[in-house]
């Protein structure tokens, strides 16, 4: 039996607890949606003011040099690189995850064409975040060279589907719906044993679980900065390419920011001989600047300490829902095994959408994903053990009182 007092003791002993002070969250809110939009670091306001008032307002165009705007994608990429086992100058911050997938997919397909042009299959997961599938479809239609998309239904299906026809595999390191976590090193090994290339989508794992792209021998990775990294709404995404592929192909969105000598204003495109070749055009500097406030908080701790707390909190959430909410038709779809669990917990309920709305009305902000999935994100930077206790007490009340049956919880907003 887990008690509130026990949770209070865990909080008192939590060495990461003080990091919460670096975020500004509204009073009375338990925020379980940092996996979709991270909370606001306090420092972000000061940084936004500096960028808008000083860099833009006062220094004007000088800021491209003086404030390092031109170097920002690589400088920030290197900071994020420290969280994902990247070497210097292997990571950039730019564009969106969707666009970055297009770029690295083009690179991977092109590299494979040079190796063995008979490989025409791209493997992805049916349960991947849909934009990944949409972008692959769009890319295949554009190049129109007989590529086919093969969708697998479970991680185990990869073993039986991959073969000598596979060119590229695209996987989400952590599944956005179930929270399933792939074994990165073992999956790279499997894919490489078939001479295929693998693109990791890190959207739900960057800042959530320890990642070591180099020691796991990964090829390509892309991911969001506005989820666990707390970069701010719509903040540009990251892109990482293993050193061995950085100059093997220049991606097709060959804008001037990826040019070797952009200020030569040359007539023709020559890609930079480094990771900058994955840039395209002028970046949203204000938004990009804010990412640093979130990343700097991570750099005060380490991903292994965060992972320990994340697993304790997700274990606690599972245990408490089983202790407090039995008989209410909740089904856990997140793996119990630590080795395959990301940092969110998903519970199915026949009225999942309305349950989430009723929780939000009580100040417990999670989100809903089709079909029937209540998704509760666990961000150890700003959640306590007591927060988890309280969230489960609210869930229990919503279910016990059937609050979800109230009509106002059944209307859908534009974004769910
Ligand atoms: C959130 C998310 C995205 C979002 O892509 P955008 O281009 O930023 O809209 C892509 N892939 C996965 C797996 C995600 O979770």
From TrEMBL:
Annotated residues that bind pyridoxal 5'-phosphate are located at 97-98, 129-132, 201, 204, 226, 256, 282
Against InterPro entries, the record matches this protein to: Kynureninase (IPR010111), PyrdxlP-dep_Trfase (IPR015424), PyrdxlP-dep_Trfase_major (IPR015421), PyrdxlP-dep_Trfase_small (IPR015422)
Q: Which top EC class is named for this enzyme in its record?
A: hydrolase
Question: What is a single molecular function from GO for this protein?
Answer: pyridoxal phosphate binding
Write the record's keywords in alphabetical order, separated by commas.
Hydrolase, Pyridine nucleotide biosynthesis, Pyridoxal phosphate
Example GO biological process: NAD+ biosynthetic process
Cofactor(s) listed in the protein's UniProt record? pyridoxal 5'-phosphate
Question: Which reaction equation describes what this protein catalyses?
Answer: 3-hydroxy-L-kynurenine + H2O = 3-hydroxyanthranilate + L-alanine + H(+); L-kynurenine + H2O = anthranilate + L-alanine + H(+)
**Modified-residue entries (N6-(pyridoxal phosphate)lysine), positions:** 227
Q: EC number(s) on record?
A: 3.7.1.3
GO CC entries: cytoplasm
Subunit description? Homodimer.
Q: Which family does it belong to?
A: Belongs to the kynureninase family.
PANTHER family in alphabetical order: KYNURENINASE
The role this protein plays is: Catalyzes the cleavage of L-kynurenine (L-Kyn) and L-3-hydroxykynurenine (L-3OHKyn) into anthranilic acid (AA) and 3-hydroxyanthranilic acid (3-OHAA), respectively.
Put simply, this protein is called Kynureninase
Q: What organism is recorded for this protein?
A: Snodgrassella communis
Q: Which gene encodes it?
A: kynU
